Amino acid sequence: MNIHELPMIIFTVIAQMCVGSFVVLGAIQLLASRRHDTRTVERLTEPIVYAIGPAMVLGLAASTLHMNDITNTLNVFRHVGSSWLSREIVFGMAFAGLGFGFALLQWFKIGTFRLRQLLAAATAVAGIALIWSMSQIYYSLVTVPAWNTPVVPFHFFATTLMLGALAVGCALVVTTWVRRRTATTGGAGAAAPAQEPPSSGGVLTAVRTRVEEINKPTTTAEWALTTRTIQWLAVVSAVVGVAVLVSYPLHVADLAADPVGAVSAEVFSGAFFTARLLLLGLSAVLLALFVFRTATSTVLERPRLLTGLITAAFVVALAAELMGRSLHYDSMLRIGI
Questions:
Q1: DSSP label at 273?
Q2: In whole angstroms, how far apart are CA 192 and each of 49, 212, 232, 303?
Q3: What pLDDT shows up at residue 65?
Q4: Helix axes 304-330, 220-256, angle to 10 degrees
Q5: Of 97, 124, 127, 140, nearest to 16 (Cα)?
Q6: Which pLDDT score is estimated for 68?
Q7: CA separation for the pair 84, 65 (Å, rounded)
Q8: How much is the pLDDT for 73?
Q9: pLDDT for position 123
Q10: Which residues contact 17 (CB under 8 A, 6 or more apart)?
Q11: How many whole angstroms separate alpha carbon 288 and alpha carbon 181?
Q12: How far does CA 37 lie from the centroid of its chain?
């Protein structure tokens, strides 16, 4: 693992996972709304939206460890027109800010449904622009043969889609477990304090009401939609994983045609690279296949096996993508320097 670039490895992978999760949730909402009512669809997607923000903050915090002076971040606004790094930071802030605004409006049901959907669409666009800007930072470096190739943006968007799909699938079953536990222990508001300050009583009551609403037990219809969604997410992750596996031999062959690239190609060999491929294959193909088959027969009362499989697939895929990003930074060899 490339320890020197660890902050950027964590930031890029987590940011891509967050964007992927948000985009996948948007796609689920659009597709599921054709056959299901709005409440059922929102019961599936809404809790996951609130988990993306903290994960994105973690990624942004990790990126600051790569800076010698964090105050230099303010200078990025002066170079948006010419610097992909500036665009990355601007779109990262836009994605985080718009996402927070959407979550706030969604939580308190502020504004119309159409307004919230437009804000969600703007957030998704900012997220996609973030991933594109992130990939162009490396792709635009013509002096680094291993980066100046379409494989780089392809791998960045592949990580976005695969981790986003698996993270959402994992969150769907975890949400079901949380709702079951809440119902068993007597509801979200069971442990509320006996007295509250008058000035904050209205806000606290409103928050508790929303928590209780979100944590109501999953219905049979909602579980049926959940399992079908997880099946499609497993298919998506498997297809993307196979595409990444196929891309590596093509990438190495392309690098071998250049003297400096041939040296970079040596990075994609050895035990670490082999372990990355094995983990990717395990999560994207084998575990995804078992998730797809298990989701077909899993009932609401016994989701343990499905939960274990989708969680394992996500954890293994996350480890594989962190290793892949480490290899990406290891392959940086410049021409003429």
A1: H
A2: 25, 12, 39, 29
A3: 66
A4: 20
A5: 127
A6: 57
A7: 19
A8: 59
A9: 97
A10: 55, 159, 160, 163, 164, 167, 318
A11: 27
A12: 26
Give the residues of the chain that fall short of pLDDT 70.
Answer: 65-77, 79, 183-202, 336-337
- Cβ distance 43 to 190 under 8 Å? no
Q: Choose among 248, 220, 222: nearest CA to 328.
A: 248
Dihedral sign of CA atoms 153, 157, 163, 166 in order: negative
Q: Closest Cα partner for 136 from 180, 89, 83?
A: 83
> What is the number of helices (H) and of strands (E) in the chain?
11, 0
* C-alpha to C-alpha distances, 301 to 45, 220, 249, 304, nearest whole angstrom: 21, 10, 45, 9
CA gap 74, 266 in Å, rounded: 38
pLDDT of residue 70: 58
Q: How far apart are CA 173 and CA 223, in angstroms?
A: 9
Q: What is the pLDDT of residue 140?
A: 95
Cα torsion 271, 274, 280, 282: sign: negative
Task: Record the tokens describing residue 106, joined without a space.
Answer: 């969604």
Judged by phi (left if over 0) then psi (alpha if -120 to 50, else beta), residue 186 lies in left
